[in-house]
Design goal:
This protein has 174 residues and is α+β, with helices and mostly antiparallel strands. The protein is 40% helix and 22% strand. Strands 1-2-3-5-4 form a 5-stranded mixed barrel. The protein is elongated.
């Protein structure tokens, strides 16, 4: 009995695209990968695997790796701009790091005196953004930063690798 009369149990045969011949020549015509993929998408994913084979899948993975690598590289580059936050000492900033915003743990009346005494005791000066991210201050920027420690500030500069290089700084009311 032929398989055509068996109904649901008959094997499914997917159509295989015919190889295209150039008119009047014995060699085959080149079919672009985009055209092959479009045809394979029309006939479902297993066919795509057969069409592209291992080589095609390796190329897709390589492209994905390149895209991910470039996006990771772009996220690590320095970004410049204006930042609003607080100049604090590292000890106080780390102790308040669990808060969602810097305004939750900074008490304006005591903040300036606390920061100045901690910096005098040897703590490092850090910049705390309004969303409570801690950035270290670049050593070359310390002269610009020291008069404004313990204050809310607006800084223009560049962040590179978690370090802030200050171009200009202005104090803001708490």
């Amino acid at each position: 009995m032929t398989s055509e009369g068996r109904g649901i149990l008959s094997p499914v045969r997917l159509p295989v695209p015919p190889l295209q011949r150039r008119v009047g020549e014995d060699d085959f015509e080149y079919t672009s990968p985009a055209r092959r993929r479009a045809f394979a998408n029309a006939l479902q994913a297993p066919f795509l695997d057969r069409m592209l084979g291992l080589f095609g899948r390796i190329l897709l993975v390589k492209k994905l790796c390149v895209v991910l690598g470039l996006s990771a590289l772009a996220s690590m580059t320095a970004w410049a701009g204006e930042f609003t936050g607080y100049l604090s000492d590292q000890k106080c900033a780390v102790s308040g790091a669990k808060a969602k915003t810097a305004a939750e743990w900074i008490q304006p009346k005591a903040f300036e005196n606390c920061v100045k005494s901690c910096v005098k005791a040897g703590e490092a000066v850090v910049f705390v953004t309004e969303d409570n991210k801690i950035l270290k201050i670049e050593g070359s920027s310390m002269d610009k930063v020291m008069p404004a420690i313990g204050h809310k500030v607006k800084v223009s500069g560049k962040v590179d690798g978690g370090k802030l290089t200050v171009d200009s700084i202005s104090t803001l009311p708490m």
